[in-house]
Amino acid sequence: MSYKIAFISLGCAKNLVNTEQMMALCRAAGHTVTGDPEGADAAVLNTCGFIESAKSEAIDHILELGRLKAEGKLKKLLVAGCLSQRYREEIRAELPEADGLLGTGSYTEVVSAVEELMAGGRPERFGDIHRTYEDGERMVTTPPYTAYLKIAEGCSNGCAFCVIPRLRGRYRSRSMESLLAEAEGLAARGVKELIVVAQDITRYGLDRKDGSTLAGLLEALCRLPFHWIRLHYLYPEAVTEELIAVVAREKKILHYLDIPIQHCSDGILKAMRRRSTRREIEALFDRLRSVMPDVVLRTSLICGLPGEGEAEFEELCGFLREQRIQRAGVFQFSPEEGTLAAAMDNQVDPETAARRVELVADLQSDIMDDYNRQRLGTVMEVLCEGFDSGEGCYTGRTYADSVEIDGRVLFTAAGVIPAGEFVHVRITGTCDGDLTGEIED
Q1: What distance in Å separates the CA atoms of residue 244 and residue 231, rounded to the nearest whole number?
Q2: What is the rounded CA–CA span in Å between residue 226 and residue 319?
Q3: I need a surface site. Which of 76, 95, 204, 210 has the fewest CB within 10 A?
Q4: What is the pLDDT averaged over residues 361-388?
Q5: Omega before 233 within 30 of 0, i.e. cis
């Protein structure tokens, strides 16, 4: 029997890739796949359970889908992903809206789980999170010009604040052969911007012991007909000279590097179980800027880790003023059960941590505004993402802006510009963190 199955994906791009794999499996089994749960036989909610805000978002979605069920607009709900993996017992006991559960080790069992669900069962599939199959077909849901390539699963870094290894298993690189085959398929479909993702792309291949490296993979990807290749995420201690040389040399690889440092204080970095010191981070940034003067750096920062006093926080603010990192995501420390940091002494008061997040966000906003002002009068290559009727102009992104997390360029043009086309825009203004301009003939 064929069913109409709705998919909702929460959380990161890596989670989205798993959702796309599940969609492809269901479609191959003869089921109809949709993004709208209203009127569907079953909904598969792929959740994030990384930090408190992500858990709250997932629970809100479960409750909303439960209301659709109560109204007769949806028959069954399968909850998949990190929240299921982390809170199996709690979901079973406290969220009766969920009719079945699928852990992070069982994405490929989605078809049999849905079919069991529709037959009246309550499937609970929790396979080995260290041995998931990553090479399956995908039903790509991003715009046709942009797609993600997930090159590895899991993480073995063991940061003190992070629960991901418990949810996703140890680091596992995919084979170069499978990645290039998938990338060739994406290129053949017209993808122009390939976004290379993993929890840590810099350690790609090291676990395989077959000579695979990120530098080698990128060189091979650059031989395919992509226009842009974007990188998320590079851990500072694993960035090699070989990798820097490849990024600097290959014109398709964007000089936009997402390097999550989390902090700059050596004491806090040590407590986080990070492997870099402030001096090493500064040396890496200096090296990148010396070989790529146009490099745009993005990072992630945590405020309020246990032991972060006013001195450590002021050190972080001073570091950011000196380094002028153009892009940053700033997060309040979330004491996650089962992590080393949650059990540490000297916990920071949540209100203090929240205030620090606001201060860093304001500081970074000023740095971003300064970067935008420096773009005035320049001509930048922009990937057009379509016409925004609300703004009355076209929107797009430069190399300095990753999808859904950075700013936009709002620009005017005399003719029709299709989404997915690269154009050159003269930057004439700034507006709430975005750039404005007009197309350059």
Answers
A1: 12
A2: 36
A3: 210
A4: 97
A5: yes
